[in-house]
Amino acid sequence: MKNNYAPLKRQRGVALIVVLLLLALMTLLAVQMTERLHLNFYRVENQIQNQQAYWFAQGMEELAKVAIKQGIEDSDTVNLSQAWATRGQRYPLDGGEAVGDIIDRQACFNLNALSGVQPTTGSSTKPYIVTVLQTLIEETGVESYDAEVVADSVWEYVDPDEKVNAVFGAGDSTYEGFRPPYLPPRDWMADASELRAVNGVTAAIFDKVRHQVCAIPTTTLAINVNTLFERQAPILVALFSPRLSLSDAQKLIADRPYDGWDNVEDFLGESRIASIDASIKDQAKEFLAVSSDYFQMDTEVLVDRSRVRLVALLKRDSEDSVTVVRRRYGGISERISDNQAR
């Protein structure tokens, strides 16, 4: 006898398969929607945290301005006993913390001071400030020849005159021969990291000198003897070369009065300096100071998983005014370069 229910059973089987396929498809869509929802949630959360970290960094900048103004308003000098100079300050935040330091940007050799320096007329002797940079580089452990090449090249790099004045200076043709080729700005450096682009500056040389040099937007070189650290003793050695040894310079900084020296004359009156020839002291005196106008704030803000680093150059225009010259975002303070670039 013919079975009339067989087609119906087959239709029911097909319907079940269709339902299962639809269920699987809906499940897959639900999983994908859930994943996208979570992704959007984390994206928005990260954006909120980054914004919080950004504004916390702005707040740290304002705090740095206040610290500089309050720390200096009752003093004619800038020294490391003042509130702004406290290292490694930590501030708890809602969901994170901020860590920051303020350093004196006049406790270093300003590379932009070489801009516009004229060669010595009728003499093969280099300008004093170029010689100081060369000696400073040598004192960090760089070979004499390499130090001379770097010092002359820095002079030409920031000098607006296209004429090459230094014996080992590099002109446009030198940089055009690099791979990739580029031209020197013949103007101020925006940051000391630009030193890496100067002819002759290898990664090893840059690592040795980077704590001794800086780039602030002025051609003035006024080194604050009240804010030098012992590791920056080579700066004093270079200024008073060849009459001041590295050990004496380090001892001079280590024995510095708690509030620093009141004036440059008091510094020059120190026993380790007083015995130096008057001609050498007179040359160095022009580039010494006991106060500062440029400071750098380096802060890192952590909010949950977000991290924002802000490095700001601050200028003290007067006793009650501190302005921001430039800001740089990004980077990790503990990052160590692999020095693979040549």
From TrEMBL:
Keywords: Cell inner membrane, Cell membrane, Membrane, Protein transport, Transmembrane, Transmembrane helix, Transport. NCBIfam families: T2SS_GspK. Residues 107-217 form the T2SS protein K first SAM-like domain. It is found in: Cell inner membrane. The keyword Ubl conjugation does not apply. Belongs to the GSP K family. Pfam families: T2SSK, T2SSK_1st. It comes from the Bacteria. The keyword Protein transport applies. GO terms for cellular component: plasma membrane. GO terms for biological process: protein secretion. InterPro entries: GspK, GspK_central_sf, Pilin-like, T2SSK_SAM-like_1st, T2SSK_SAM-like_2nd. Signal peptide: none annotated. This is Type II secretion system protein K. Residues 223-290 form the T2SS protein K second SAM-like domain. It comes from Photobacterium gaetbulicola.
